[in-house]
Amino acid sequence: MRITIGVTGGVAAYKAAELVRLLQQDGFTVEVVMTRGAREFITPLTFAALSGQKVITDLFEKSFSGGANVESAIEHIAVAQRSDLLLVAPATADILAKFARGMADDFLTTLYLATTAPVIVAPAMNVNMWNHPATQENIEMLRARGVKIVNPDEGYLACGMTGAGRLAGQQEIVAAVRQTLHTQKDFEGETMLITAGPTCEDLDPVRYLTNRSSGKMGYAVAEAAARRGAKVSLVSGPVNLETPSGVERFAVRTAEEMRHAVVDRLPESTIAIFAAAVADYRPAETQTKKMKRNREPLTIRFEPTPDILAEAAQTKGERLIVGFAAETELVVENARKKLAAKNADLIVANDVTAEGAGFDHDTNIVTLFSRDGRDLALPKLSKSAVAQRILDEVLRLRGVLRHKTESHRSAV
Ligand code: PMT
Fold first, then answer.
1. Measuring CA to CA, which of 116, 283, 289, 366 is 20 to 30 A from 63?
2. Which of 257, 324, 359 has most ligand 1 atoms within 8 Å of its beta carbon, as the pocket-test mutant?
3. 191-411 in CATH: which number?
4. For ligand 1, is residue 255 a contact (CB within 6 Å)?
5. Each residue's pLDDT tens digit, 224-279
6. Which 3-state string (H, E, C) describes 54-99?
7. pLDDT at residue 63 tops 50
8. Is the CB of 362 within 6 Å of ligand 1?
9. How many angstroms does the Cα of residue 260 sit away from the middle of ligand 1?
């Protein structure tokens, strides 16, 4: 993921260098934009050396690239589009005012207007400037617009005064970035088993029965879980997707193979999420030779496949089990039935006939049905955003279920 750090002109500008390093350690690619004021306090070379990226310094002047100069007249649009997040640290009273009023007279202010990525500002200034009604009004205006504010700390300030105005601690700023990008390590210590994609059930050496699952939903969950610190095993049917970074993938083809892979990895997992579209039936017999065409109608006998999720949930202990429900009618009723029948803790139900939902789309529309009775209907979201919401619900539910178990134990 890519973060753009805007550095503005304050004594705390040097602290942005450490922020670049910390965010890189977290795996982010960091690009730095400096205002004219910032360059009075620290040189672009410092950031170019630390980030390994060119540092953008002005809208119309040539930008600094540690040797190569690049025209940047329309680059704010490109930077705006490639950034997953804009962080301004330190943010002066001046930049807060410009952001609040929509001024666009340098690279950073035009970038702010042009980006649709989340924005975080970490102000740093003199205590009176911070407390001034104009600054506070600007802060409120930005907050109301969805900008996240990392409030300054109190303490001794460079101007010799004491009070609020010191740039917040770097760890606090990094935590705000992680929280916004859902990269906080809140699944650290969890071992997650995830199924994804379709299964293929062979009729003969050249024909098989399958479904339209692309694996995108399950892979999005795997990627999000790994980013959030879980050790992830992904049992995947045949799909055309790259294995997300940090995820161990086990390729399977049939429902039976998927079942074996799940059974092998289940004991070590603390959370299991079943996003795969497993064939419910397979041919009772697989022919070893290609079936010959003839003029008679063909009848094939199918037998049910093992219900991998239901089997896993039978002996779940403290393991949290999440199932999906792919429905084409009576979504709520069917999802609730599946929650109970499969002994799951959470069911993610999608109406796969809805526009932009279900198979192969990059988006999904789901409702989360939890064991504690909470139903959460989500709007149409990208599959990666849906994955984050599923993981948030898993964490909430884990807290609720642990609390219940502890209360029960102390009552006995
Ligand atoms: O892969 P994509 O193209 O991104 O599409 C996403 C999706 C539509 C596949 C996904 O969102 C989804 O709904 N996955 C579940 C599909 C499915 O098989 O649903 P179901 O209602 O038939 O099954 C209920 C649950 O039981 C599922 O968690 C399924 O994994 C599990 N199951 C079903 C049959 C079986 N034999 N074993 C199982 O474990």
1. 116
2. 324
3. 3.40.50.10300
4. yes
5. 999 899 999 999 999 999 999 899 999 999 999 999 999 999 999 999 999 999 99
6. CEECCCCCEEECCCCCEECCCHHHHHHHHCCEEEEEEECHHHHHHH
7. no
8. no
9. 17
